[in-house]
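Page 47, continued from p. 46.
Same chain as before, 164 aa.
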Amino acid sequence: MGRFMENKSALAGANGGIGQVRPWHRQMARLVAAGARPGEIAGSFGYTPGQVSRILGSPLFQAEVARMEGQTEDLAVSVREDLQLMSLRAIEVLDASLDEPVESWKERATLIDAAFGVLDRAGYGKKEQPQDHRHLHLHAAAVKEMSNEELLKNVIDVAAEEVD
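Result:
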């Protein structure tokens, strides 16, 4: 059995929901916006599931949840858009560092490092080429027994394969 809601008669609206939003209703609305289920909410507030259902069904409560969700969407940050804007500024910093006289090498180096970091995160960084490792250690004994001419011929053949 859950606890009784404080001032229950004063809070009841015309449809049996809430008449005004109280601080604990806002806490419930945050839980609802975060995806909590009515049973979880009832347990954490000490209400019965019926009481929570009436609160959740109230138009005033639903409007409060919608208001909170709208605020979170307005405050949400688009990382991609921010990085695009920051990358434009990073390019300006790099251009300025080439054109302006040097006042402080340390400060300039810090700005350049920051600009390259932003550009790297925005997808404009240096692309690493995958290395093609030739494992010669397996053939080390055979290489030691080769003459210089044979070794040179094999190196030229390997280089020609890489070009093709």
